Amino acid sequence: MATAKTKTPEQTTDVQDSALNELFIDELKDIYWAEKHLAKSLPKMAKAATSDELRAAIENHLSETENQITRLEDAFASIGEKAVAVKCEAMAGLLKEGEEIIAETEKGSITRDAGIISAAQKIEHYEIASYGTLKTLASVLGYNEAAELLDSTLQEEKACDSLLTKIAEAGINQKSKSEKK
Ligand SMILES: [Fe+2]
Ligand SMILES: [Fe+2]
Known about the structure:
The chain is an all-alpha fold and 181 residues long. It contains five helices and no strands. The longest helix has 34 residues. The termini are far apart. The site of one fe (ii) ion (FE2) has 6 residues, from helix 2, helix 4 and helix 5. InterPro entries: DUF892_YciF-like, Ferritin-like, Ferritin-like_SF, YciF. Keywords: Coiled coil.
């Protein structure tokens, strides 16, 4: 069996010059795009929601998301980088899925809310994974200010996810069970 050749990368003692630094910045650009596009989609999701509770939760998360965009700009600035958005294919796909769920469910139905919650939680889980990694990478790279900013957003994403679970379990799942297809 052939042994796989592994290239030994050149070494550096300068964090700014490291491959990990480049990966961190690339991921920051990715989530920056994701948040900006999510902010454009959330009003549509709120408008499509049937229950006032879900609509209020989405509207609240819209203002949090706008603040998270500013926080990302602060994180870029804290490491001397320009805030640049690079298309996040994962978020683009998740948002498209959310639009499809709205198109496929009946207006005014609770089942639509169950669908919106499903789409929104997939988005939140993607964000939780992204911010968890970003926060850890920021700490490893010694970017303490960025790590703190990213952690604040991580906590908001987790809280949003928990709230969505609470809303679903408080009645939406049961009510939608009795709606005819
Ligand atoms: Fe977010
Ligand atoms: Fe979020």
